[in-house]
Amino acid sequence: MATFSPSPAPRRSSRLRGDARPNSPPRRMRVANSTSRLSTPNRNADGTSVASLMDVDDGRSSVGSERGLAKTGVEHIFAKSDQVMVSFHANLPLEVTQILRNADFYRDVYSGEIDTLTGFALIASMKTCFVWQHAMAVKGIPTCYIFTCPYDFNQTSPPFHSLVPWGSSREPGLILISTAGEIRLWDSVGIGLAGGDRYSTTYLELISEDIVTGLKRVDTQTYVVSTSSGSLYKLVLTSTGGKYHLTSHPFSKPSKSLSLSRLIPFLSSSSTTTTHLVSEPGNISAISLGHQTIDGGRDIWVLINTRVQRWVMKLDGWEELIQDEDVADLIRNAVRKTFGNSIEKVDAKLDLELVDLVVDRYNLVEVGMMAMDVTGIRRIYSLVQLSLSGDSFKVDNVRSVPYQSTSSSGAPMHPQIQSLPQGQLVSIQFGDAVVLCARASDYQERLELKSATDRTLGVGIMQSESVVLVLTAGIMMKVNVDIDNVLTFEPENGRAHLIKSVMTQAILYGSLPNNPLHFSFPPEVDEESLMRAAEQLSDSILHSDPELVRGNQDLSSQLKVRKERLAWLIQFINENTALIKMSQQCRQKLATNAEKLDASFDLWAIHNNLLATGPTHSVLNDAVYAYMNEHEANYHEDFMRAFFKFHLNDLGLVMEQIPDVCLNAAQQTGRNIGDLLPEANRILLTVLTAAFKHRDHNVITYGLDLPMINPWTSTSSIIDGIIALFDTTTGISTVVTKDSELHHQVPELAEVLFACISQRVERLAIDAKGGAVGIERELHELQRKFDLLRPEVLETLRGRGHAQAAFTLAEKYQDFSSLAALCHKETIYPPEDNPNFDRIKGYIERFKDQFTNALYRWYIQHGEIRTMFSQDEAYSAYMDKFFERNPTTSISWLHDLGKKRHREAAEALLIEAQQTVNLEVKHLELSIGKLANLAYLRKTEGTADDGLYDAFHDALDVVSVHKALLEEFTAVVANMRGRRSLDTQVDILIQEKASLLSEKPELTNIFKNLVKDLLQGKSLSIEDTVDVLTLKDNFDSVGDYATALHLLARCNLPEARKHAAFRTVWRRIYLHDDWSAIQKTTGVGDAELTQRFRETALYTTFLDILSQPDQDEPEGFETDPDVALVVPTIEEIASRWPGIPQDQVERIHDDYNCECDKLGEFELEEAYPRVRELAEYELSIRD
Q1: How does pLDDT run across 8-28, given as a tens digit for each residue?
Q2: How far is CA 231 from the centre of its chain?
Q3: Which of 334, 560, 905, 1024 counts the most CB atoms within 10 A of its CB?
Q4: Are 9 and 416 in contact (CB under 8 A)?
Q5: Taking every annotated instance into account, which residue ranges of this chain make up the domain Nucleoporin Nup133/Nup155-like C-terminal (predicted)?
Q6: How confident is the model at residue 26, as a pLDDT?
């Protein structure tokens, strides 16, 4: 098996020839810097842990106090799985402990060895070697034997070492050999107690620039030394005069004079036909012992650069090289075939190095190799099993080693391989870890040191049992291997179980204060197995699995342990950067379990305090009992503790029942609800507050994407329950004192209620956006419920003396409407007298336009315009933004006038006037708007007039028409005797002013309603105004027909409706006069007939509309009698009076047809052009 002492790193022969110097140390010791390819993974030396960021209780960890869990008999267990158990084996001598405690392993080089044959161990530095009996150290602090090492001033590494096993009757001897070839022999380590000065010295006859690279014990008397030039030396221990000394000679062929084949010819039959191999120079990095040959010799296997050599040590004292093969290409091809694209394809970049070898009883050669992966950053390690096929090697299999290193890894260490008895398991020693790899299964284990100041110094294999001893800078550990479980390891289920085992060990043993091991996942951990294992382990802790949580009747202590177990679990996952491999569902599952344990810990604390008061009734007791009874788990004598131990996964279900249990208990027992409410509120507040606190504090630790996918704290039942408790509590709190618990619970209930609802709204919004079925309706209802509930709850808080809590909640949830309302519950004007004056200013500075938008909206809704415009001028910009986003022309014009923005004020007033119903207000708005526009035109000298002036002129004309009509109608009303109702007044007006409407009942009703609106001071639309102008008699106001045409010409109406309105006006113009009587010409002269024409409404209208020939009037402005016969369609009538019943539409249509029929009775083919001709003539005379 491989040597326990460190061997040098493989080196290229070209580098040796170019750099080696006489008496120079091995090249492996020249890579003791952070960039060595042989360096070990860098571990974080910072003591800060992920758990310190979590919301856990202060104080000494109870995990560390549970050392009883880590003991089996007297063994302190550091790690335990189905395959291995790592425990404390022995302490180091005080002298060694003191030396290594302050050692810098990056600067100071140490080597070590555990000799299981003698029961001794040693550690060597550059100048001193410490030896002690490790088997004795199990019982106490061992005796330390100290020796001075052979040393050369050019030396940069400790000497190579080996103990000499004399047997159980005496202490072993010690051999130390420096890299320069000086050998010292102590025939007993006991000499070290007296200073260790009595030793014998021998020197190897090294060639120039050659240095020692290894020392291997073959048996008690025989040792093999390797060098950097490829030479092997045999050391033989002999005794002369009772004193022991060493002799040495290089491996060599037999001399002819001493060869047995010369004396016994038949022995040379094979050799006479065999060509002797000659070893080429090269660095020897490893020596391994093979089997004894048939003739009693011994095979020696050597790794020299990338060549594997096999030597035979003959009984007659000479050595023969029987095999020498370069396996580099063979291994490269096998490794690439095994690992595919994960490693380099180019040989130079692959940088293959063979680091050690071991040979089993079947002559299977296990070669350790390292190579660069495809990233060019990490070096990966593998085991390659070679077997002989004739005179050459073949690769049986390639297995990855769960270890990687980079250029920034820790203190360097040349990997060393050893084989357990029977060769079923291989151990590989790295600087900060020991790896176990099975040969017959896929089992792998990595024992990694925790501290960056610690390192492995030796590994020993117990030959009689499956035990591995590991020597570190602090202690010695014993690794018991269950070979049966190793051999039956199944990769399909075993990997997930192995990952779970690693996490379990991290939880159980990682917190032990003296545990030297660091638990970590193997490289390329499987994501699915990781998540499944983490969830199973978390659930097991939540359910108090006895393998993870020790039984304890003290529930507070037991809950604390479980909390810490889950804290260690997520800490371990984070320390191994495995969280990124977990899905969001898995992370939230782990976080939810931790939340429930945290909440349960606090819940049990308040219940524990309640039990101390000797209560006669408990709401929590009733709720838990109902749950346990429903789930057929009431067989526990102490069902309450049983729930907290085994059923915390359903904590949310119990919380949902608390409100009903409380209210039902009051009804069933006749107790005052006020006596039960404090506990019920306390339960929900404790659980939910603890859960929310844990979630907020650990969102980074668990990598949560909030809101939670399925939040157990925000179910519909819990929300409804909190609302019920809040309503009941606020109903009772009006009669309780302000010092009572109920009074102080009101704001806490409101805070928890808002948190639950908001989280559920956020979750539903995300689900709805993702296309979840049936979510939109629930989201809309819950959002609407929250919008209605929030101001109600906040006002309740204010009314119950919790104003500050109301403000705080409104701020947290940015309910600016409620904030604005809360700020104006007392004095509003003047603003300086408002007790919240400074608060309002603070909110404006803090929330800016988010708050001012709600504030101005509140002012407008509550008619506090004066308060709105009393604000500091510094905030006027917020008002500009508000009116820009929320056009409110009824108010914004005031702000514009104040800012001398006359154009904007005029536009706002025009828009507002068009929407204003009150005639006087409309008149005022138009008048102010016209003045503002005139001010703007004066400022711009009229260059920017784009029609706004004409719009105000036309709108004021409409107001003038309204006032003229109103004056006409009020003159009739004024002549009425006594007080008359409005309807009576209208009826009389129709009799006197619309006598011709009697044949058109539906138009009469419309006229009545329009006149009524006028008398009430309301403004009419253009179409309504036209109807009033044309439906009345107009005996004394025949010019109103032309006014109606002008109003229609200037208004904006759909083309079809405008054309229909023009036809209707002209139809009524024609119907105003009795054309049958006018056109009776018997006995009538031309002058009289002409006078009749001039007295018609048609003539008057023509005089008006023809007097402005240059104006571009719309189509229909002048309509002949034939076109006027076309009445509006049913659709046009429905569009004109939207919302009226269909039968009313039809009746209006009938009235239009009545007008058409009457007009059709007149013959106006000759009269129409004659009247128009007379009007044109009259206008020409005037001109």
Answers
A1: 333 333 333 333 333 333 333
A2: 61
A3: 905
A4: no
A5: 809-1163
A6: 39
pLDDT digits (tens, 9 = 90+) for 626-666: 999 888 766 777 889 999 999 999 999 999 999 999 888 87
Length in residues, the chain: 1183
CA-to-CA distance for 713 and 695, rounded, in angstroms? 11
Give a three-class secondary structure readout of 909-948. Answer: HHHHHHHCCEHHHHHHHHHHHHHHHHHHHHHHCCCCCCCH
Report d(CA 341, CA 528) in Å as an integer: 22
Query: Cis ω on the peptide bond leading into residue 1169 (within 30° of 0)?
Result: no
* Chain position carrying tokens 């250029």: 407
Structure tokens at 1070: 């024609």
Inter-CA distances, 1105 with 34, 338, 1117, Å: 104, 102, 9
> Contact at 8 Å (CB) between 155 and 180?
yes
The conformation of residue 265, written as its DSSP 8-state character, comes to G
Q: How close are the terminal C-alpha atoms of the chain, in Å?
A: 134
The per-residue b/e assignment along 550-582, b for 16 or more CB within 10 angstroms, e otherwise, is: eebeebeebbbbbbbbbbbbbbbbbbbebbebb
Cα angle 922, 924, 926; round to 5:
70
895 with 883: CB under 8 angstroms?
A: yes
Q: In 772-918, where does DSSP find H-type helix?
A: 775-799, 803-812, 816-822, 837-847, 849-861, 865-868, 876-885, 889-898, 902-915
Q: Is the peptide bond before 707 cis (omega within 30 degrees of 0)?
A: yes
- pLDDT one-digit tens code per residue, 509-520: 887 888 999 888
Q: What mean pLDDT comes out for the span 363-370? A: 74
Our CA dihedral for 590, 594, 599, 600, rounded to 10 degrees, sits at 100
Average pLDDT (440-453) is 87
Radius of gyration for the alpha carbons in the chain, expressed in angstroms and rounded: 52
The answer to whether 349 and 331 have CB atoms below 8 angstroms apart is no
**Which of 405-414, 656-665, 805-814 has the weakest average pLDDT?**
405-414
pTM to 2 decimals? 0.69
Residue 350 has pLDDT above 70, yes or no: yes
Residue 53: C-alpha distances to residues 696, 701, 768 (Å) = 12, 7, 34
Distances (CA, A) of 288 to 273, 434, 877: 29, 19, 87
Q: Span 593-616, mean pLDDT?
A: 92
Residue, of 1110 and 779, whose pLDDT is higher: 779
Q: What backbone phi and psi angles, to 5 degrees, belong to 447?
A: -105, 105
- Which two tokens mark 982? 């409005």
CA–CA separation, 149 vs 766, rounded Å? 72
Q: What pLDDT digit, counting tens, does each position of 1040-1066 carry? A: 999 999 999 988 889 999 999 999 999
Most confident range (mean pLDDT) of 314-318, 366-370, 411-415, 850-854 is 850-854
246 has which bridge partners? 237
* 866, two tokens: 């004066």
Q: What is the mean pLDDT of the chain?
A: 84
Residue from 447, 466, 352, 460 nearest 398 by CA: 352
- Dihedral (CA of 99, 100, 104, 106) sign: positive
Sorted by sequence, the CB contacts under 8 Å of residue 133 that are 6+ apart come out as 119, 120, 121, 142, 143
For the stretch 1131-1137, contacts whose Cβ atoms lie closer than 8 Å and that sit 24 or more positions apart, written own/partner, are 1132/1056, 1132/1057, 1132/1060, 1135/1054, 1135/1056, 1135/1057, 1136/1023, 1136/1057, 1136/1060, 1137/1006
Which residues are CB-neighbours of 276 under 8 A, at least 6 positions away? 253, 320, 321
Q: Which residues of 64-101 are buried (b: 16+ CB within 10 A; e: fewer)?
A: eebeeebeeeebbbbbbbbbbbbbbbbbbbebbeebbe
Look at residue 73 in the predicted model and tell me its pLDDT. 42
**Sign, Cα dihedral of 92, 98, 102, 105:** negative
